[in-house]
Amino acid sequence: MRVRTRAPLVAALACQLAALVMLVAGSTTTSGGAAARQPPPPAAAEPPPAPASPTAVPPAVLTVLGAGDVLIHPPVWEQAAADAGGTGFDFYPIFADLRPVISGADLAICHLETPLAPAGGPFEGFPTYSAPPQLTDALAQAGYDTCSTASNHTLDQGEAGVTRTIDALAAAGLGWAGSARSAADAATPRVREVALDNGQTVQVGHLSYTFGFNGLSPPPGKEWIANRIDADRILAEAVAARAAGAEIVVLSLHWGTEYQVDPDAAQLDLAERLAGSGEIDLILGHHAHVVQPVEKVDDTWVVYGMGNQLARHAEVIDGQREGVLARVTFTEQDSGWEVTAIEAVPTWVDLDPEIRLVDLPAALAGPGGPAIYQTAHERITESLLRRGADQYGLVVRAPGG
Q1: Is 73 within the bounds of a domain?
Q2: Is residue 204 part of a domain?
Q3: How confident is the model over 198-220, as pLDDT tens digits?
Q4: Do 101 and 319 touch, CB atoms closer than 8 A?
Q5: How many domains does the chain have?
């Protein structure tokens, strides 16, 4: 009886065992019925890392700044003497307001119209200038790097004046172009290496020429002492500057008709010939003592006249107190350097209570600026745009800009 009672239990166990065998067999049978354990599927391979994108290198950029005439009349050096406390001369306070704009350029070029005297004088004003050489320290402190020296007053003090002027510029760490101390110096292209913000350097050639010397002539056999305008000679020097490594060539021209806003026929003809040569990248003009227009001739920007940066003429005329800082941006392209922006910053010469240069857009940034500043800014803007330069990219810095 005990056997009978155990039979159901055995049968149950047998059924469970059979079920387990079938389960195991099913899990180990291939699609063809053969019992074989399948390996686990391989883990998905990690995709290879994407190649790093090359970092785009921004193009090199160079800013060149030009300015109007620096013309040292007696009231100007008297102001510098007062600013020095009665001993010597300190011209820097006159320039201080413009320093942020001037020093912000990679290459800032002044136009020194007057020759320089010995340190102790004598000093002279119009018509044969001889200014205190302490002026060059102020030009350097304001942020200038080099100066054009070819003007109708270059020979006012003869060969000695030319040599003193160059010596004073060199002593202040400034370059020059337009006059020379020797034939070898005159034959050497003025090419300056300029350091850029990205650590790169660019070679810039600077040329300077004038229409004449107020009836004076260089010493016999020393025609090289100062550069008189001659289109063929200008182009030959530009070619020589490029052969010496210049990647950009800037030309300073003392030309035009005094106190005339519009460029004269000689300016227009010369600009056309030089711009069409492909050898000149930028022309900066002086001499008129008033602001003249800017124009793009072929692919070359021509600033016909930047007015007076610093002057104190005997007759006070507002138009002769106006000037421009021309800020030109060159960008390196595959085909070479090209002008990609040009901006004009209007300036003014305050005469009372002290002689001081004024950055007009900055001075007009807030309310309460003198009405004469606003009038000057408007007149300068109108002069600059008379030949439609705004259509080609010229920007006149606005009040507060």
Answers
A1: yes
A2: yes
A3: 999 999 999 999 999 999 999 99
A4: no
A5: 1
Alpha-carbon distance 387 to 293, whole Å? 6
Spell 116-134 as b/e; 16+ CB within 10 A means b. Answer: bbeeeeebbbeebbbbbbb
pLDDT above 50: residue 102: yes
Give the CA radius of gyration of the chain.
38
The arrangement of strands across the sheet holding 248-254 comes to 191-195, 201-210, 248-254, 282-286, 300-303, 294-297
What type of residue is 2? Answer: R
Q: Which residues pair with 194 in a beta bridge?
A: 202
Residue whose tokens read 């008709």: 257
Domain that holds residue 110: 61-396
- Torsional sign, CA 275, 281, 286, 292: positive
- The span from the CA of 230 to the CA of 239, in Å, is 14
- Residues 308-365 pLDDT 10s: 999 999 999 999 999 999 999 999 999 899 999 999 999 999 999 999 999 999 999 9
> Which stretch of DSSP H or E encloses residue 186?
helix 183-186
Domain contains 312: yes
Q: Rounded distance, CA 70 to CA 345, Å? A: 16
Give me 67's structure tokens.
Answer: 């300015």
Report DSSP letters for 202-254, one per residue.
Answer: EEEEEEEEES--TT--PPTT-GGGBPBP-HHHHHHHHHHHHHTT-SEEEEEEE
Identify the CATH number of the domain in which residue 192 sits: 3.60.21.10
pLDDT, tens digit, for every residue of 171-187?
999 999 999 999 999 99
Angle at CA 208, nearest 5°, toward 285 and 168? 110
First and final C-alpha spacing in the chain: 116
Is residue 256 situated within a structural domain? yes
Judged on CB neighbours under 10 Å (0-12, 13-18, 19+), 158 is middle
